[in-house]
Amino acid sequence: xxxxxNVRKVVPYVAGEQPNKxxxxxxxxNECPYPPAPGVAKLAEQLNCDALRLYPDANTTPLxxxxxxxxxxxxxxxxxxxxxxxxxxxxxLTFFNSEKSxxxxxxxxSFYDVWADLYRIPYxxxxxxxxxxxxxxxxxxxxxxxxxxxxxxxxxxLESLDMxxxxxxxxxxxxxxxxxxxxxxxxxxxxPLLEKYENLLVVQTFSKSRAMAGLRIGFGxxxxxxxxxxxxxxxxxxxxTMNLPSQVLGVEAVKDDAYFKEITGKIVATRERVKGELxxxxxxxPDSQANFIFASHExxxxxxxxxxxxxxxxxxxxWDKPRISESLRITVGTDExxxxxxxxxxxxxxxx
Length: 352
Ligand code: PMP
Hints:
There is one protein chain. 35% of the residues lie in helices and 14% in strands. By secondary structure, the chain is of the alpha/beta class. The chain has a five-stranded mixed beta sheet. Strands 9-10-13-12 form a four-stranded antiparallel beta sheet. A two-stranded parallel sheet has the order 1-11. α4 links the parallel β3 and β4. α1 packs antiparallel against α7 (244-255), α2 (61-71) packs parallel to α7 (244-255) and α3 crosses α6. It is globular, with a radius of gyration of 21 Å. The N and C termini lie far apart (53 Å). 44% of the residues are buried. 4'-deoxy-4'-aminopyridoxal-5'-phosphate binds next to α3. Residues 83-85, 109, 149, 153, 179, 181, 205, 207, 213, 218 line the site of 4'-deoxy-4'-aminopyridoxal-5'-phosphate (PMP).
């Protein structure tokens, strides 16, 4: 068909499945097992439906202000998007606009190569070392931009702030994006480096540590000029991206810092306990600082385990891809959910 010659053809990102069973344990897409802050539910009930007649604030001003005050930056330094996927995708479009290849790790968030292909951005991947760490020397080659998650996904491995700064120092001529989707589970954010590096964009999300994946809220923090460029592209694409309820409820979530610290602390404690239990069962994994564990078993294959767990309505994430097909990414749920998972695994491993 002739018209098909002019179609932009892409291989889309494959999101984790979203099963909807009454009794299931869902540990496959790194959602928070706890509800959003109590004030969010209260406010959701009181939402004024008449306000939905009108377009929302295209600048998401109250949310930008709440985040600016929380992170101690100017409001001109904040960009809000519909999930961090939206922020990252617009950042690819805005900042990765060179003939040179952008760089990211070979094992990383599998949306990066999809956006690069979609926007026709050339890219090169840099192999992680045998312990799944980034080798900063790989990021000394000529490039058109750099992106990596910290902690990385799906490994959970955290890089030190020194390592992040080493990459920034070596790359003053391109934008460096640090995707901090999982930073609130024990990592150290690159935000303090913003004072020194105007080419840094830090991206975070409400989907994991703030328990609001369903509202789709993400944000980027950077130098005013850099955020200005991002806004120019956003406003050339779609003005009213974030709906009113997300804006209002997002502000409410930011207000309750005690709750935020309580749930992230609980997830970290559960993660550390589960690491010990998994080890006893013959699993090994890099030392995750995220809300998931990337585990492989000494004798049982990851695909076999994945299907066995699925059969029992326990959902984890598995990729049949080079380098990672021997591991399962297991989101940290509540203690009770993890106990069901561990009981299943104990029983299953015993049979082999
Ligand atoms: N970055 C990383 C590394 C992720 O794993 C995810 C979750 N899939 C995202 C960004 C996007 O999350 P969201 O769009 O829900 O903010």
